[in-house]
Here is the input.
Amino acid sequence: MRVFRQIIVVGVGAAITFSNAAQSASAQPPAQSQDSLALSNQLELGQKVRSTSNTVAESASDPEQSIALNPPTSESQQQGGANIASTPATGPEQASKPQQAAPASPSTLSQGGSTPLRGLEPKDAQQPSPSPLNNVPVRSSPVPILRGTPNESFPPVPPRGILDTKPPASLEPNPNPLQFPTKPEDVRIEQTEAITLQQAIDLARRNSQTLQIAQQQIKQSQSAVREQQAALFPDLTFQMGASRSVSAGGQIGVQSQIRRLDALAAKNKLPANTATPQNFGSTALNNTLQLSYDLDIFGRRNANIRAAREQLRFRELDLERQAEQLRFDTAEAYYNLQNSDGQVAIRQASVRNAQQSLRDAEALERAGVGTRFAVLQAQANLANEQQQLSVARRDQRVAQRRLAEILNISQSANLTAADPVEQAGSWRLSLEESIVQAFKNRPELEQQLVQRDISKQQRRSIQAGGLPQVNVTGSYNFLGQTSDNPDPFSTRGWASGYALQANLTWNIFNGGATRARVKQRDADIAIAESRFDQLRNQVRREVEQAYFGLESSFENIETSEAGVLQSREALRLARLRFQAGVGTQTDVIQAETDLTRAERNRLSAIVTYNLGLSSLERAVSNLPTNNLSDAP
Here is the structure.
Protein backbone atom coordinates (compact mmCIF):
# COMPACT_ATOMS: atom_id res chain seq x y z
CA MET A 1 0.00 0.00 0.00
CA ARG A 2 2.84 2.39 0.83
CA VAL A 3 4.53 1.63 -2.50
CA PHE A 4 1.28 2.32 -4.32
CA ARG A 5 0.92 5.65 -2.53
CA GLN A 6 4.45 6.67 -3.50
CA ILE A 7 3.71 5.75 -7.11
CA ILE A 8 0.62 8.00 -7.04
CA VAL A 9 2.61 10.93 -5.54
CA VAL A 10 5.33 10.56 -8.14
CA GLY A 11 2.77 10.35 -10.92
CA VAL A 12 0.94 13.47 -9.76
CA GLY A 13 4.21 15.40 -9.46
CA ALA A 14 5.23 14.34 -12.96
CA ALA A 15 1.81 15.35 -14.32
CA ILE A 16 2.12 18.82 -12.74
CA THR A 17 5.62 19.21 -14.11
CA PHE A 18 4.58 18.26 -17.66
CA SER A 19 1.52 20.52 -17.36
CA ASN A 20 3.69 23.49 -16.37
CA ALA A 21 6.09 22.71 -19.20
CA ALA A 22 3.20 22.67 -21.67
CA GLN A 23 1.95 26.05 -20.42
CA SER A 24 5.44 27.53 -20.75
CA ALA A 25 5.89 26.08 -24.25
CA SER A 26 2.57 27.53 -25.41
CA ALA A 27 3.49 31.07 -24.25
CA GLN A 28 7.21 31.07 -25.19
CA PRO A 29 9.54 30.07 -28.04
CA PRO A 30 10.13 26.31 -28.39
CA ALA A 31 13.83 26.65 -27.53
CA GLN A 32 13.02 27.15 -23.84
CA SER A 33 12.95 24.19 -21.49
CA GLN A 34 10.38 23.22 -18.88
CA ASP A 35 12.60 24.35 -16.03
CA SER A 36 12.47 27.91 -17.41
CA LEU A 37 9.14 28.44 -15.64
CA ALA A 38 10.92 28.29 -12.30
CA LEU A 39 13.08 31.21 -13.52
CA SER A 40 10.18 33.46 -14.55
CA ASN A 41 11.48 36.28 -12.40
CA GLN A 42 13.78 37.21 -15.31
CA LEU A 43 11.42 39.67 -16.92
CA GLU A 44 11.31 41.45 -20.26
CA LEU A 45 9.55 44.76 -19.69
CA GLY A 46 11.36 47.18 -21.92
CA GLN A 47 14.78 47.50 -20.22
CA LYS A 48 17.51 45.22 -18.98
CA VAL A 49 19.22 45.15 -15.66
CA ARG A 50 22.68 44.24 -16.85
CA SER A 51 24.94 42.51 -14.41
CA THR A 52 28.69 42.99 -14.57
CA SER A 53 29.66 40.08 -12.38
CA ASN A 54 31.47 37.04 -13.67
CA THR A 55 28.72 34.64 -14.83
CA VAL A 56 30.54 32.69 -17.48
CA ALA A 57 30.73 29.51 -15.47
CA GLU A 58 27.08 29.80 -14.52
CA SER A 59 26.00 30.38 -18.09
CA ALA A 60 28.05 27.44 -19.28
CA SER A 61 26.75 25.03 -16.65
CA ASP A 62 23.09 26.04 -16.79
CA PRO A 63 22.24 28.00 -19.96
CA GLU A 64 18.54 27.97 -19.12
CA GLN A 65 19.09 30.47 -16.33
CA SER A 66 20.07 33.14 -18.85
CA ILE A 67 16.80 32.82 -20.78
CA ALA A 68 14.24 35.54 -20.06
CA LEU A 69 10.77 34.06 -19.66
CA ASN A 70 7.20 35.27 -19.85
CA PRO A 71 6.93 38.00 -22.50
CA PRO A 72 5.76 41.39 -21.20
CA THR A 73 2.08 41.98 -20.74
CA SER A 74 0.37 45.15 -21.88
CA GLU A 75 0.07 46.23 -18.28
CA SER A 76 3.79 45.97 -17.70
CA GLN A 77 4.50 47.88 -20.91
CA GLN A 78 2.31 50.72 -19.72
CA GLN A 79 4.23 50.88 -16.48
CA GLY A 80 7.54 51.06 -18.38
CA GLY A 81 9.29 48.62 -16.08
CA ALA A 82 12.85 47.43 -16.21
CA ASN A 83 13.93 44.14 -17.65
CA ILE A 84 15.57 41.98 -14.99
CA ALA A 85 17.60 39.76 -17.26
CA SER A 86 21.13 38.75 -16.55
CA THR A 87 23.47 39.39 -19.48
CA PRO A 88 26.33 36.88 -19.58
CA ALA A 89 29.72 38.22 -20.48
CA THR A 90 32.01 36.86 -23.15
CA GLY A 91 34.80 36.14 -20.73
CA PRO A 92 35.65 36.26 -17.06
CA GLU A 93 37.74 39.41 -17.27
CA GLN A 94 35.22 41.28 -19.38
CA ALA A 95 32.34 40.23 -17.20
CA SER A 96 33.94 41.45 -14.01
CA LYS A 97 34.69 44.96 -15.32
CA PRO A 98 32.25 47.88 -15.56
CA GLN A 99 31.11 49.27 -18.88
CA GLN A 100 34.13 50.61 -20.76
CA ALA A 101 34.07 54.25 -21.81
CA ALA A 102 36.12 56.44 -24.09
CA PRO A 103 39.37 57.59 -22.48
CA ALA A 104 39.55 61.14 -21.23
CA SER A 105 42.43 63.51 -21.77
CA PRO A 106 45.26 62.99 -19.28
CA SER A 107 45.28 66.69 -18.48
CA THR A 108 41.58 66.95 -17.73
CA LEU A 109 41.82 66.17 -14.04
CA SER A 110 45.31 65.82 -12.71
CA GLN A 111 48.86 65.50 -13.82
CA GLY A 112 50.59 62.16 -13.81
CA GLY A 113 49.06 58.81 -13.06
CA SER A 114 46.02 58.02 -10.99
CA THR A 115 45.08 55.18 -8.69
CA PRO A 116 41.73 53.53 -9.43
CA LEU A 117 39.13 53.11 -6.71
CA ARG A 118 39.76 50.09 -4.54
CA GLY A 119 37.33 47.41 -5.62
CA LEU A 120 37.03 48.66 -9.21
CA GLU A 121 40.15 47.00 -10.57
CA PRO A 122 39.88 44.35 -13.30
CA LYS A 123 39.50 40.85 -11.95
CA ASP A 124 41.92 38.06 -12.63
CA ALA A 125 41.03 36.25 -15.83
CA GLN A 126 40.83 32.83 -14.24
CA GLN A 127 37.86 30.50 -14.40
CA PRO A 128 35.94 30.55 -11.10
CA SER A 129 35.39 27.25 -9.36
CA PRO A 130 31.67 26.42 -9.56
CA SER A 131 29.72 25.22 -6.60
CA PRO A 132 28.59 21.60 -6.89
CA LEU A 133 24.98 22.64 -6.14
CA ASN A 134 24.16 25.64 -8.28
CA ASN A 135 27.40 26.67 -10.00
CA VAL A 136 27.55 30.06 -8.29
CA PRO A 137 30.62 31.96 -9.56
CA VAL A 138 33.32 32.64 -7.00
CA ARG A 139 34.75 36.16 -6.99
CA SER A 140 38.39 36.21 -7.98
CA SER A 141 41.02 38.37 -6.32
CA PRO A 142 41.80 41.69 -8.05
CA VAL A 143 45.03 42.22 -9.94
CA PRO A 144 47.02 45.25 -8.75
CA ILE A 145 47.03 48.11 -11.25
CA LEU A 146 50.07 50.31 -11.67
CA ARG A 147 49.79 54.05 -11.29
CA GLY A 148 49.43 55.93 -14.52
CA THR A 149 47.40 53.15 -16.17
CA PRO A 150 43.77 53.74 -15.12
CA ASN A 151 41.53 50.80 -15.88
CA GLU A 152 38.56 53.00 -16.68
CA SER A 153 37.99 56.58 -17.76
CA PHE A 154 35.02 58.87 -17.62
CA PRO A 155 32.07 58.34 -19.97
CA PRO A 156 32.57 59.75 -23.48
CA VAL A 157 31.90 63.42 -24.09
CA PRO A 158 28.97 63.97 -26.51
CA PRO A 159 29.93 65.74 -29.75
CA ARG A 160 29.87 69.53 -29.39
CA GLY A 161 28.61 69.36 -25.84
CA ILE A 162 25.69 67.97 -23.96
CA LEU A 163 23.08 70.15 -25.68
CA ASP A 164 23.18 68.01 -28.88
CA THR A 165 21.18 65.11 -27.42
CA LYS A 166 18.06 66.08 -29.41
CA PRO A 167 15.35 65.27 -26.85
CA PRO A 168 11.81 64.81 -28.20
CA ALA A 169 10.27 68.10 -29.24
CA SER A 170 6.97 67.09 -27.66
CA LEU A 171 8.54 67.51 -24.22
CA GLU A 172 9.19 71.22 -24.67
CA PRO A 173 7.24 73.26 -22.10
CA ASN A 174 4.93 76.13 -22.90
CA PRO A 175 7.06 79.22 -23.65
CA ASN A 176 4.72 81.31 -21.52
CA PRO A 177 6.00 81.06 -17.92
CA LEU A 178 2.70 82.47 -16.64
CA GLN A 179 0.61 79.67 -18.12
CA PHE A 180 -2.14 78.66 -15.71
CA PRO A 181 -4.13 75.55 -16.69
CA THR A 182 -7.82 75.89 -15.87
CA LYS A 183 -9.27 72.75 -17.49
CA PRO A 184 -8.70 69.04 -16.75
CA GLU A 185 -7.66 68.39 -20.35
CA ASP A 186 -4.86 70.94 -19.94
CA VAL A 187 -3.08 68.67 -17.45
CA ARG A 188 -4.17 65.26 -18.76
CA ILE A 189 -1.26 62.96 -19.68
CA GLU A 190 -1.53 62.31 -23.40
CA GLN A 191 1.88 60.88 -24.28
CA THR A 192 4.77 59.06 -22.66
CA GLU A 193 8.31 59.51 -23.91
CA ALA A 194 11.35 57.36 -23.11
CA ILE A 195 14.50 59.46 -22.65
CA THR A 196 18.11 58.73 -21.78
CA LEU A 197 19.97 60.21 -18.84
CA GLN A 198 21.91 62.58 -21.10
CA GLN A 199 18.66 63.80 -22.65
CA ALA A 200 17.23 64.32 -19.17
CA ILE A 201 20.24 66.45 -18.18
CA ASP A 202 19.91 68.35 -21.45
CA LEU A 203 16.23 69.11 -20.81
CA ALA A 204 16.93 70.11 -17.22
CA ARG A 205 19.56 72.65 -18.25
CA ARG A 206 17.34 74.06 -20.97
CA ASN A 207 14.14 74.33 -18.95
CA SER A 208 15.25 74.75 -15.34
CA GLN A 209 13.72 77.80 -13.69
CA THR A 210 16.56 77.76 -11.17
CA LEU A 211 19.20 78.27 -13.87
CA GLN A 212 17.06 80.90 -15.58
CA ILE A 213 16.83 82.86 -12.33
CA ALA A 214 20.58 82.53 -11.79
CA GLN A 215 21.27 83.83 -15.30
CA GLN A 216 19.04 86.86 -14.70
CA GLN A 217 20.90 87.53 -11.46
CA ILE A 218 24.17 87.50 -13.40
CA LYS A 219 22.73 90.12 -15.75
CA GLN A 220 21.75 92.19 -12.74
CA SER A 221 25.28 92.00 -11.38
CA GLN A 222 26.73 92.96 -14.76
CA SER A 223 24.53 96.06 -14.78
CA ALA A 224 25.61 96.82 -11.21
CA VAL A 225 29.26 96.73 -12.29
CA ARG A 226 28.51 99.12 -15.14
CA GLU A 227 26.70 101.39 -12.71
CA GLN A 228 29.74 101.62 -10.46
CA GLN A 229 32.08 102.13 -13.42
CA ALA A 230 30.02 105.16 -14.43
CA ALA A 231 31.56 107.01 -11.47
CA LEU A 232 34.88 107.04 -13.37
CA PHE A 233 33.47 109.68 -15.71
CA PRO A 234 32.37 113.24 -14.88
CA ASP A 235 28.73 114.21 -14.71
CA LEU A 236 27.63 116.56 -17.48
CA THR A 237 24.24 118.21 -17.05
CA PHE A 238 22.38 120.71 -19.17
CA GLN A 239 19.60 122.88 -17.82
CA MET A 240 17.37 125.24 -19.76
CA GLY A 241 14.69 127.48 -18.29
CA ALA A 242 12.20 129.77 -20.06
CA SER A 243 10.17 132.26 -18.06
CA ARG A 244 7.56 135.00 -18.59
CA SER A 245 6.99 137.32 -15.62
CA VAL A 246 4.86 140.34 -14.78
CA SER A 247 5.82 141.75 -11.40
CA ALA A 248 3.04 142.20 -8.86
CA GLY A 249 5.12 144.80 -7.04
CA GLY A 250 5.50 146.69 -10.28
CA GLN A 251 1.74 146.67 -10.76
CA ILE A 252 1.25 148.14 -7.28
CA GLY A 253 3.75 150.88 -8.14
CA VAL A 254 1.92 151.65 -11.36
CA GLN A 255 -1.35 151.99 -9.49
CA SER A 256 0.30 154.37 -7.02
CA GLN A 257 1.61 156.53 -9.88
CA ILE A 258 -1.82 156.62 -11.49
CA ARG A 259 -3.40 157.87 -8.27
CA ARG A 260 -0.76 160.58 -7.99
CA LEU A 261 -1.37 161.68 -11.54
CA ASP A 262 -5.11 161.75 -10.94
CA ALA A 263 -4.58 164.00 -7.91
CA LEU A 264 -2.44 166.39 -9.96
CA ALA A 265 -5.01 166.43 -12.71
CA ALA A 266 -7.71 167.39 -10.21
CA LYS A 267 -5.66 170.46 -9.21
CA ASN A 268 -4.87 171.24 -12.84
CA LYS A 269 -1.21 170.76 -12.11
CA LEU A 270 -0.68 167.74 -14.42
CA PRO A 271 2.15 168.47 -16.88
CA ALA A 272 1.33 168.25 -20.51
CA ASN A 273 2.12 165.06 -22.49
CA THR A 274 2.36 163.00 -19.31
CA ALA A 275 2.49 159.28 -20.22
CA THR A 276 0.20 156.84 -18.51
CA PRO A 277 2.20 154.48 -16.27
CA GLN A 278 2.22 150.76 -17.30
CA ASN A 279 3.48 147.52 -15.74
CA PHE A 280 5.61 145.86 -18.45
CA GLY A 281 6.32 142.11 -18.41
CA SER A 282 9.65 140.42 -19.26
CA THR A 283 10.62 137.16 -21.03
CA ALA A 284 13.85 135.29 -20.25
CA LEU A 285 15.62 132.13 -21.57
CA ASN A 286 18.33 130.78 -19.28
CA ASN A 287 20.68 127.92 -20.37
CA THR A 288 23.25 126.30 -18.06
CA LEU A 289 25.81 123.59 -18.88
CA GLN A 290 27.49 122.14 -15.79
CA LEU A 291 30.37 119.64 -15.48
CA SER A 292 31.16 118.08 -12.09
CA TYR A 293 33.69 115.42 -11.08
CA ASP A 294 34.55 113.69 -7.83
CA LEU A 295 38.32 113.47 -7.48
CA ASP A 296 38.12 110.38 -5.20
CA ILE A 297 41.47 111.02 -3.63
CA PHE A 298 41.05 108.13 -1.12
CA GLY A 299 39.87 105.32 -3.46
CA ARG A 300 36.19 105.03 -2.55
CA ARG A 301 35.09 104.77 -6.16
CA ASN A 302 37.58 102.02 -7.04
CA ALA A 303 36.57 100.04 -3.97
CA ASN A 304 32.93 100.12 -5.04
CA ILE A 305 33.85 98.95 -8.54
CA ARG A 306 35.91 96.04 -7.21
CA ALA A 307 33.10 95.04 -4.85
CA ALA A 308 30.62 95.00 -7.76
CA ARG A 309 32.99 92.86 -9.84
CA GLU A 310 33.43 90.41 -6.99
CA GLN A 311 29.66 90.24 -6.61
CA LEU A 312 29.40 89.37 -10.30
CA ARG A 313 31.96 86.61 -9.79
CA PHE A 314 29.95 85.34 -6.83
CA ARG A 315 26.84 85.10 -9.05
CA GLU A 316 28.76 83.24 -11.73
CA LEU A 317 30.01 80.73 -9.19
CA ASP A 318 26.49 80.35 -7.88
CA LEU A 319 25.27 79.53 -11.39
CA GLU A 320 28.02 76.93 -11.62
CA ARG A 321 26.98 75.45 -8.26
CA GLN A 322 23.32 75.31 -9.24
CA ALA A 323 24.18 73.69 -12.57
CA GLU A 324 26.15 70.99 -10.75
CA GLN A 325 23.33 70.47 -8.25
CA LEU A 326 20.77 70.32 -11.05
CA ARG A 327 22.84 67.67 -12.81
CA PHE A 328 22.97 65.62 -9.61
CA ASP A 329 19.23 66.06 -8.89
CA THR A 330 18.38 64.99 -12.44
CA ALA A 331 20.61 61.92 -12.27
CA GLU A 332 19.20 61.01 -8.86
CA ALA A 333 15.60 61.31 -10.07
CA TYR A 334 16.46 59.28 -13.19
CA TYR A 335 18.09 56.48 -11.20
CA ASN A 336 15.18 56.47 -8.77
CA LEU A 337 12.85 56.05 -11.74
CA GLN A 338 14.96 53.12 -12.95
CA ASN A 339 14.80 51.66 -9.47
CA SER A 340 11.01 51.99 -9.34
CA ASP A 341 10.74 50.36 -12.79
CA GLY A 342 12.86 47.49 -11.56
CA GLN A 343 10.79 47.15 -8.40
CA VAL A 344 7.64 46.86 -10.51
CA ALA A 345 9.30 44.18 -12.63
CA ILE A 346 10.40 42.25 -9.55
CA ARG A 347 6.97 42.46 -7.98
CA GLN A 348 5.35 41.26 -11.20
CA ALA A 349 7.70 38.29 -11.16
CA SER A 350 6.76 37.64 -7.54
CA VAL A 351 3.07 37.67 -8.45
CA ARG A 352 3.66 35.15 -11.21
CA ASN A 353 5.64 32.96 -8.84
CA ALA A 354 2.83 33.15 -6.31
CA GLN A 355 0.27 32.28 -8.99
CA GLN A 356 2.33 29.27 -10.03
CA SER A 357 2.59 28.11 -6.41
CA LEU A 358 -1.17 28.46 -6.04
CA ARG A 359 -1.76 26.37 -9.16
CA ASP A 360 0.59 23.69 -7.83
CA ALA A 361 -1.16 23.62 -4.44
CA GLU A 362 -4.61 23.39 -6.05
CA ALA A 363 -3.45 20.59 -8.36
CA LEU A 364 -2.10 18.58 -5.44
CA GLU A 365 -5.33 19.15 -3.52
CA ARG A 366 -7.41 17.91 -6.45
CA ALA A 367 -5.19 14.84 -6.68
CA GLY A 368 -5.83 14.08 -3.03
CA VAL A 369 -2.22 14.38 -1.93
CA GLY A 370 -2.32 18.07 -0.92
CA THR A 371 -4.00 19.94 1.88
CA ARG A 372 -6.40 22.85 2.03
CA PHE A 373 -3.98 24.60 4.36
CA ALA A 374 -1.32 24.72 1.62
CA VAL A 375 -3.86 26.26 -0.79
CA LEU A 376 -4.81 28.92 1.76
CA GLN A 377 -1.15 29.70 2.32
CA ALA A 378 -0.62 30.15 -1.41
CA GLN A 379 -3.70 32.37 -1.72
CA ALA A 380 -2.55 34.58 1.16
CA ASN A 381 0.93 34.83 -0.34
CA LEU A 382 -0.54 35.83 -3.73
CA ALA A 383 -2.66 38.53 -2.11
CA ASN A 384 0.38 39.95 -0.33
CA GLU A 385 2.43 40.00 -3.53
CA GLN A 386 -0.37 41.74 -5.43
CA GLN A 387 -0.50 44.40 -2.72
CA GLN A 388 3.25 44.92 -2.94
CA LEU A 389 2.93 45.23 -6.73
CA SER A 390 0.32 47.96 -6.29
CA VAL A 391 2.66 49.86 -3.96
CA ALA A 392 5.53 49.49 -6.44
CA ARG A 393 3.38 50.93 -9.25
CA ARG A 394 2.45 53.87 -7.04
CA ASP A 395 6.11 54.57 -6.37
CA GLN A 396 6.81 54.29 -10.11
CA ARG A 397 4.21 56.94 -10.96
CA VAL A 398 5.56 59.24 -8.26
CA ALA A 399 9.11 58.83 -9.60
CA GLN A 400 7.94 59.64 -13.12
CA ARG A 401 6.27 62.86 -12.02
CA ARG A 402 9.25 63.82 -9.87
CA LEU A 403 11.54 63.61 -12.91
CA ALA A 404 9.01 65.56 -14.99
CA GLU A 405 8.97 68.29 -12.34
CA ILE A 406 12.75 68.66 -12.37
CA LEU A 407 12.91 68.73 -16.18
CA ASN A 408 10.00 71.20 -16.41
CA ILE A 409 8.48 69.47 -19.42
CA SER A 410 5.07 69.85 -21.04
CA GLN A 411 2.05 69.46 -18.77
CA SER A 412 0.61 66.71 -20.99
CA ALA A 413 3.75 64.52 -21.21
CA ASN A 414 5.12 61.78 -19.00
CA LEU A 415 8.56 60.16 -18.91
CA THR A 416 10.08 56.70 -18.74
CA ALA A 417 13.72 55.68 -18.52
CA ALA A 418 15.25 54.52 -21.80
CA ASP A 419 18.70 53.63 -20.45
CA PRO A 420 19.24 50.06 -19.26
CA VAL A 421 19.82 49.55 -15.56
CA GLU A 422 23.56 48.98 -15.57
CA GLN A 423 26.70 50.39 -14.04
CA ALA A 424 27.10 53.96 -15.27
CA GLY A 425 30.91 53.90 -15.32
CA SER A 426 33.81 53.87 -12.92
CA TRP A 427 35.97 56.25 -10.94
CA ARG A 428 39.65 56.39 -11.84
CA LEU A 429 40.98 58.66 -9.08
CA SER A 430 42.21 57.59 -5.69
CA LEU A 431 40.57 58.93 -2.56
CA GLU A 432 43.33 61.44 -1.93
CA GLU A 433 43.29 62.68 -5.53
CA SER A 434 39.51 63.00 -5.39
CA ILE A 435 39.68 65.14 -2.25
CA VAL A 436 42.32 67.43 -3.75
CA GLN A 437 40.31 67.81 -6.97
CA ALA A 438 37.21 68.64 -4.95
CA PHE A 439 39.12 71.38 -3.10
CA LYS A 440 40.18 72.81 -6.46
CA ASN A 441 36.86 72.46 -8.28
CA ARG A 442 34.08 73.12 -5.81
CA PRO A 443 32.57 76.58 -6.45
CA GLU A 444 31.24 76.74 -2.89
CA LEU A 445 34.78 77.14 -1.53
CA GLU A 446 35.67 79.86 -4.00
CA GLN A 447 32.42 81.63 -3.21
CA GLN A 448 33.54 82.13 0.38
CA LEU A 449 36.83 83.60 -0.78
CA VAL A 450 34.95 85.93 -3.11
CA GLN A 451 32.61 86.91 -0.28
CA ARG A 452 35.63 87.78 1.85
CA ASP A 453 36.98 90.00 -0.94
CA ILE A 454 33.59 91.71 -1.26
CA SER A 455 33.60 92.53 2.45
CA LYS A 456 37.16 93.88 2.20
CA GLN A 457 36.24 96.24 -0.63
CA GLN A 458 33.11 97.37 1.19
CA ARG A 459 35.20 98.11 4.29
CA ARG A 460 37.62 100.14 2.18
CA SER A 461 34.74 102.11 0.67
CA ILE A 462 33.30 102.88 4.10
CA GLN A 463 36.66 104.02 5.41
CA ALA A 464 37.20 106.28 2.39
CA GLY A 465 33.73 107.74 2.88
CA GLY A 466 34.72 109.05 6.30
CA LEU A 467 37.64 111.04 4.83
CA PRO A 468 37.47 114.41 3.02
CA GLN A 469 35.70 114.36 -0.34
CA VAL A 470 36.76 116.83 -3.04
CA ASN A 471 34.43 117.77 -5.87
CA VAL A 472 35.12 120.26 -8.67
CA THR A 473 32.40 121.90 -10.74
CA GLY A 474 32.45 124.09 -13.82
CA SER A 475 29.36 125.72 -15.35
CA TYR A 476 28.62 127.84 -18.40
CA ASN A 477 25.50 130.07 -18.46
CA PHE A 478 23.82 131.64 -21.50
CA LEU A 479 20.93 134.04 -20.76
CA GLY A 480 18.54 135.81 -23.08
CA GLN A 481 16.02 138.39 -21.81
CA THR A 482 13.48 140.82 -23.37
CA SER A 483 10.87 143.23 -22.05
CA ASP A 484 7.51 144.57 -23.18
CA ASN A 485 8.72 148.13 -22.45
CA PRO A 486 9.26 149.92 -25.78
CA ASP A 487 11.90 152.07 -24.19
CA PRO A 488 15.15 151.38 -26.03
CA PHE A 489 17.03 151.68 -22.76
CA SER A 490 15.03 148.98 -21.00
CA THR A 491 16.66 145.69 -19.94
CA ARG A 492 16.94 143.31 -22.89
CA GLY A 493 19.57 141.26 -24.81
CA TRP A 494 21.75 138.10 -24.71
CA ALA A 495 24.74 137.39 -22.47
CA SER A 496 26.89 134.47 -21.26
CA GLY A 497 29.02 133.68 -18.23
CA TYR A 498 30.79 130.86 -16.42
CA ALA A 499 31.61 129.70 -12.93
CA LEU A 500 34.29 127.42 -11.45
CA GLN A 501 33.91 125.86 -8.05
CA ALA A 502 35.75 123.38 -5.82
CA ASN A 503 34.02 121.83 -2.82
CA LEU A 504 35.57 119.91 0.05
CA THR A 505 33.25 117.92 2.27
CA TRP A 506 34.38 116.18 5.44
CA ASN A 507 32.02 114.49 7.80
CA ILE A 508 34.12 114.94 10.91
CA PHE A 509 31.72 113.41 13.40
CA ASN A 510 28.69 111.15 12.82
CA GLY A 511 28.36 109.53 16.20
CA GLY A 512 30.64 106.58 15.43
CA ALA A 513 28.47 105.25 12.56
CA THR A 514 31.45 104.87 10.20
CA ARG A 515 33.45 102.89 12.73
CA ALA A 516 30.45 100.64 13.39
CA ARG A 517 30.02 99.89 9.69
CA VAL A 518 33.73 99.05 9.42
CA LYS A 519 33.40 96.58 12.29
CA GLN A 520 30.46 94.95 10.54
CA ARG A 521 32.58 94.33 7.46
CA ASP A 522 35.38 92.95 9.63
CA ALA A 523 32.89 90.49 11.08
CA ASP A 524 31.78 89.53 7.57
CA ILE A 525 35.40 88.79 6.66
CA ALA A 526 35.82 86.56 9.70
CA ILE A 527 32.52 84.79 8.93
CA ALA A 528 33.60 84.08 5.33
CA GLU A 529 36.90 82.61 6.53
CA SER A 530 35.15 80.41 9.11
CA ARG A 531 32.65 79.23 6.52
CA PHE A 532 35.49 78.39 4.16
CA ASP A 533 37.04 76.23 6.87
CA GLN A 534 33.67 74.63 7.58
CA LEU A 535 32.93 73.98 3.90
CA ARG A 536 36.39 72.50 3.33
CA ASN A 537 35.73 69.88 5.98
CA GLN A 538 32.24 69.32 4.60
CA VAL A 539 33.58 68.83 1.06
CA ARG A 540 36.09 66.27 2.28
CA ARG A 541 33.39 64.41 4.18
CA GLU A 542 31.13 64.39 1.12
CA VAL A 543 33.91 63.03 -1.08
CA GLU A 544 34.85 60.34 1.42
CA GLN A 545 31.23 59.36 2.03
CA ALA A 546 30.51 59.08 -1.71
CA TYR A 547 33.80 57.24 -2.31
CA PHE A 548 33.20 54.66 0.41
CA GLY A 549 29.61 54.22 -0.73
CA LEU A 550 30.70 53.66 -4.32
CA GLU A 551 33.27 51.11 -3.22
CA SER A 552 30.73 49.24 -1.11
CA SER A 553 28.09 49.28 -3.85
CA PHE A 554 30.52 47.85 -6.38
CA GLU A 555 31.29 44.94 -4.08
CA ASN A 556 27.59 44.41 -3.39
CA ILE A 557 26.81 43.98 -7.10
CA GLU A 558 28.71 40.71 -7.38
CA THR A 559 27.50 39.53 -3.99
CA SER A 560 23.88 40.20 -4.89
CA GLU A 561 24.30 38.49 -8.27
CA ALA A 562 25.47 35.33 -6.54
CA GLY A 563 22.50 35.60 -4.18
CA VAL A 564 20.09 35.78 -7.12
CA LEU A 565 21.53 32.65 -8.69
CA GLN A 566 21.37 30.78 -5.41
CA SER A 567 17.79 31.88 -4.75
CA ARG A 568 16.67 30.79 -8.22
CA GLU A 569 18.16 27.36 -7.73
CA ALA A 570 16.62 27.11 -4.26
CA LEU A 571 13.18 28.01 -5.64
CA ARG A 572 13.48 25.45 -8.42
CA LEU A 573 14.39 22.71 -5.95
CA ALA A 574 11.64 23.76 -3.53
CA ARG A 575 9.04 23.46 -6.27
CA LEU A 576 10.30 20.09 -7.41
CA ARG A 577 10.19 18.83 -3.82
CA PHE A 578 6.68 20.21 -3.35
CA GLN A 579 5.42 18.72 -6.61
CA ALA A 580 6.93 15.36 -5.64
CA GLY A 581 5.18 15.50 -2.26
CA VAL A 582 8.34 15.59 -0.15
CA GLY A 583 8.31 19.37 0.46
CA THR A 584 5.86 21.85 1.93
CA GLN A 585 4.14 24.95 0.61
CA THR A 586 5.94 26.93 3.29
CA ASP A 587 9.28 25.99 1.74
CA VAL A 588 8.13 27.26 -1.66
CA ILE A 589 6.80 30.54 -0.23
CA GLN A 590 10.03 31.09 1.67
CA ALA A 591 12.07 30.39 -1.47
CA GLU A 592 9.95 32.87 -3.43
CA THR A 593 10.46 35.48 -0.72
CA ASP A 594 14.20 34.87 -0.76
CA LEU A 595 14.32 35.22 -4.54
CA THR A 596 12.36 38.49 -4.43
CA ARG A 597 14.71 39.82 -1.79
CA ALA A 598 17.74 38.77 -3.81
CA GLU A 599 16.40 40.42 -6.98
CA ARG A 600 15.71 43.60 -5.05
CA ASN A 601 19.18 43.51 -3.53
CA ARG A 602 20.78 43.20 -6.95
CA LEU A 603 18.72 46.05 -8.37
CA SER A 604 19.44 48.15 -5.29
CA ALA A 605 23.16 47.46 -5.59
CA ILE A 606 23.30 48.65 -9.20
CA VAL A 607 21.14 51.73 -8.62
CA THR A 608 23.01 52.56 -5.43
CA TYR A 609 26.30 52.27 -7.31
CA ASN A 610 25.08 54.70 -9.97
CA LEU A 611 23.79 57.09 -7.33
CA GLY A 612 27.11 56.83 -5.52
CA LEU A 613 29.02 57.60 -8.71
CA SER A 614 26.77 60.61 -9.34
CA SER A 615 27.26 61.74 -5.75
CA LEU A 616 31.02 61.46 -6.10
CA GLU A 617 30.95 63.47 -9.32
CA ARG A 618 28.87 66.11 -7.53
CA ALA A 619 31.23 66.11 -4.55
CA VAL A 620 34.22 66.74 -6.84
CA SER A 621 32.38 68.88 -9.44
CA ASN A 622 33.59 70.37 -12.74
CA LEU A 623 34.57 67.06 -14.30
CA PRO A 624 35.46 66.92 -18.02
CA THR A 625 32.09 65.40 -18.94
CA ASN A 626 29.93 67.92 -17.12
CA ASN A 627 30.20 70.44 -19.96
CA LEU A 628 29.35 73.46 -17.87
CA SER A 629 30.71 75.69 -20.61
CA ASP A 630 27.93 74.43 -22.86
CA ALA A 631 25.19 75.12 -20.34
CA PRO A 632 22.56 77.55 -21.64
Remarks:
- Strands lie at 191-195, 235-245, 282-294, 413-417, 469-483, 493-505.
- Residues 1-5, 21-162, 627-632 have pLDDT under 50 and may be disordered.
